[in-house]
Amino acid sequence: MKKLFQGKQTRHIRRWHRYLGLATGIQFLLWTVSGLYFSWSDIDHIHGEHLKTSYEPPAFDSLLSPTQIVMPVREVSFRVINGQPYYFINNQRLYHAKNGTPKDTLTPQEAIQLAGEHVSSDLKVKQVEYLTQAGSHHEYRERPLPAYAIHYGGAGAPIAYVSAKDGKFQTIRHRAWRWFDFLWMTHTMDYRSRDDINNWLLRIFSVAGLITVCSGLLLWMVSSKRVRKMVS
């Protein structure tokens, strides 16, 4: 134990602490900034709840049974598109629930109308984009494609997403969510897909951070006159 308090050992500890601090300092800062943003943010606001409206789908009667349209039926979801009832059957295709007519995809106008049922009427459409791919950093990642991205004007640059194949409103994104997503990436250190909290880079920096803190405590101990007197 006394060897730790010798000048040579103290210099080694100080050197290691300095190098580790340089290596982990920027990431420590990112963890702190992102943590502050997360703790001070309203998660409902981040999810865009203030941009959404409650939607009550209309009721229908005299609908066909899904088995009258397609056999066999493994999965069925009900959709209302432009006021008309549809089944999305077997996760493959839309069919009109009254006459069985298949529907391959939504039109841009139908996507706008469907999104308008779920978002605030104050939002005005600025542009409609048709997405056939979304990379690992895209705000619509890991959701059904193709899809329509309905861009709205106004604060936060909100974008609503509607999947073109199954006619479902997916989500709405805005600037606060994009900041959250970016800071989440820096927090998890998953710079490939943003959502993997078990990546090796995070594990390595977590261990390095722990060693940095421990070396700082050790450096305080070997620099403290009171501790040195207790050991000597």
Describe what this molecule looks like in 3D.
- This protein has 232 residues and is an alpha+beta fold.
- The protein is 40% helix and 18% strand.
- The strands form two sheets. It has a four-stranded antiparallel beta sheet. A four-stranded antiparallel beta sheet has the order 5-6-7-8.
- It is elongated, with a radius of gyration of 28 Å.
- The mean pLDDT is 88.
Task: Record the SSE blueprint.
Layout lengths: L6 H34 L2 H4 L29 E6 L2 E6 L3 E4 L5 E2 L4 H9 L8 E7 L15 E6 L6 E5 L4 E6 L1 H14 L11 H24 L1 H7 L1
Antiparallel strand pairs: 1-2, 2-3, 3-4, 5-6, 6-7, 7-8
Helix pairs in contact: 1-4, 1-5
What would you call the structural class? Answer: alpha+beta
| Secondary structure tally, helices | 6
Number of strands: 8
Strand content: 15-25%
Rg, Cα atoms, Å: 28 Å
Sheet with most strands: strand arrangement? 1-2-3-4
Q: What is the global morphology?
A: elongated
Sheet bearing the most strands, described? 4 strands, antiparallel
**Helix-strand sequence:** HHEEEEHEEEEHHH
**Quaternary structure:** single chain
**What portion of residues is helical?**
25-40%
Cα(first) to Cα(last) distance is: 10 Å
What low-confidence regions span 5 or more consecutive residues with pLDDT below 50?
none
Mean pLDDT: 88
